[in-house]
Amino acid sequence: MVFPCPNCNETINTSLSQCTYCGTPVDRSAALLSAAETSRISQACSDASYLKIIAWALLACLGLLFIPFLSLAGAVGFWFLRIAVPVMVVRWWIKFGGIKTGDPDFPGAKRAAVIVSVVAVFALFDTLVAVIAALRPHP
Questions:
Q1: What's the number of domains the chain is made of?
Q2: Which residue of 38, 65, 95, 137 pairs with 74 in a disulfide if CB–CB is 3.0 to 4.6 A?
Q3: What is the pTM of this model?
């Protein structure tokens, strides 16, 4: 596991007793806590990137609906992702929404989560409208 040195902010391994860059002694328990937090922030950034990918996949599936012979695959993917995107967004916010950090990558991850959240709200609203319209009796 790795963490940023408290003195010089270079990334070092938790097994080291002192920073290889500045020579500052490393407290093992503090290093493990810092490494766990670093790992959590990295996971938040990775999951936010995945959110962007599935949001773009939702749009790609929408585009496939208009291509002959691929429209069935587009329909299946579109309906699945209309549910999966909101679920994944809620999961991200529950798991990582409360992180307070000075990491330079985290604001971009949070911004991506906000943008995909807006897409998810529209996808969920559209899904609810489609289900209600399908269940409504037709004359």
A1: 1
A2: 65
A3: 0.80
